[in-house]
Specification:
Distance between the termini: 9 Å
Largest sheet: 6 strands, antiparallel
Mean pLDDT: 75
Number of helices: 17
Strand content: 15-25%
Low-confidence stretches: 96-110, 124-130, 321-333, 376-388, 520-552, 554-558
Structural class: alpha/beta
Number of strands: 19
Amino acid sequence: MLQEIVNSANIGLVVIGPDLDVRLWNKWMERATGIEAETACNQAANKILPHTFTPELIGRVQNAIEKGVAANVPQSEDGLSLLSEPVDITIQPLEGRHYVHSLRPMREEVADTLCLIQIRRLQAGHQAPRNDRQHAESEDSEKEAARLNFLATVGHQIRTPVNGVLGVAELLRETALSNEQRKYADLLVRSGQSLLAFVNELTDLSYLEAGRSSLEAEPTQLPDLIQDVVDLYATTAANKGLGTVVELGPAIPDYVQVDHQKLRQLLTILLSNAFKFTHKGAVTLTADFVTWRNSDCLEVQISDTGIGIPTNRLGLLFEGNQSEAGAHYYNRTGLGLYICREIVELFSGDIEVESAIGKGTKFTLRLPMEAAQKKVTDLKPSANKSTQRDFGKWRVLLAEDNPVNQELFRSIMANKGHEVVVVSNGQEAVNAVQIQEPFDIIVMDIAMPVMDGLEATALIRSLSGKGGNTPIMALTAHALEGDREIFLNAGMDGYQSKPVNPETLLEAMARAINARKSVRQWPATRVREQSVHPANGPMSWLRFPKLGRRRESDPADR
């Protein structure tokens, strides 16, 4: 995971040992110099790039290694360049002695003293002013794309192992456990869910700040959506002895034209905080349709009898850094309410807060929207609702290269009586569809070695007969905006992001099977070479073919 994050950085990262030998050479350096890591590692830095690693720079590197002296070498000081491009170089001794030899831990007595070099490109000073502006805009766009890709990569690398942790913990809770063991398993699940929620919030916030998030309004059944979100906290309310009140005004329409996912996210954040910081009394949600700024508007008030927030901190509550602005009292991570503000701005709406210490808090949310005539959007079932539906017995092809996930998903399906055939990559999935008995559904991971899930789906869809019409559901840690459309355009029938609980997985599989049944004829499908915007997701699959990335399994899986 650490190696993948290093390779996603938008700067050059080089680790040098006491003999000036290269220990780490990230992907940025490969692209900037054309020298692969396999070639650079164990070679002397001044031999590989003599124009960059000049005697002056090598002297500073030796000072960092021998004396622990950090240094910054700007462009103007030594005229440093990287293939004729001006660069800024930061030299820093690695004091954490256990991070050595390709960043793998080793014993202290055999550890070397290392030096980390960070290399950033700088804008050339001889360009014309107009080109300076254009270059700066292009550079800002590239940096923003790189930042989003870095964040997406980090999120993906975290989601994959968290999926295994949560899945195994859920299976563990279904076994015979003592009370103490069950308590530990519950703590494990809650901790994993908190980590996943934080990663999702971080990703959402990055896209909102970058202006890459937009509203996708669809006719949605509003009362059901509100009740569905409130039901998420039924167990929390029962465990804490809290009352839950939902009041819908007479003007509330059955259907509204709204981005139901973002509306759900807003309500979830506000209700989560209300239940988290209320220890006695009740949480109340009231909703009605009102006229606001000369247009129809959904007004939602969420009030609690919790610990409250100091009046002098309310003005900073929706700021991005909450370390000193009420986070101790409310919204500890500082991300949830900030995300609320960003989403409300997308709606051109408004959010207000009233609170006092010991007297509770009330949030008032106003979102312009119009009533709709019919339902088009099928809301996703709430994660805490146990449907326990009888789907019959399926013959399932599971394409997944992670051994932990293979066993996890196989166990989930087998425990429900389904027959599961497991393969490790897309090529094996295509072969299995051609030579084995027909499958009821294919559950397809995306990032796999040999052949990824999108290519495998395109090949399966090109087959004649029943095999080419087999329902396919994407099961992946890629969970960014635009991914669903890419999967469906590739010929898949459904999409479920990791981590996932057993009932949610089976529900998603059922929806994919039904979706395939409802379509008599499918158009020819093909894998896109590149998405509309390169910042939509991680670089570990067909998003960045021009970077020359080798096909490989997901590093997080390893």
